[in-house]
Write a structure and sequence with these properties.
With about 80 residues, the chain is an all-alpha fold. Helices cover about 55% and strands about 0% of the residues. It contains 4 helices and no strands. The longest helix has 16 residues, at about 5-20. About 15% of the residues are buried.
Amino acid sequence: MQNRDDIFNILRDAMVELFELDPERVSLESNLYQDLEIDSIDAVDLIDHIKRQTGKKIAAEEFKSVRTVSDVVEAVYRLVQPAA
């Protein structure tokens, strides 16, 4: 899980599995809440899934600002990048 494409693919697969979404519905531009109908409980499940995949926890405050799949990809990308 080193680049944004890898993160997106893993995230899309997780969302398809966790929330029974069609893969075609999950794009970088998809709004989590309006397009994909993910609620706050689903968001917690997604955060937990990301934690299991990366071994790192996303701060809830950081996740509050995400609106699109692209926002989640960026948050995970920042999380997995080694500190410079």
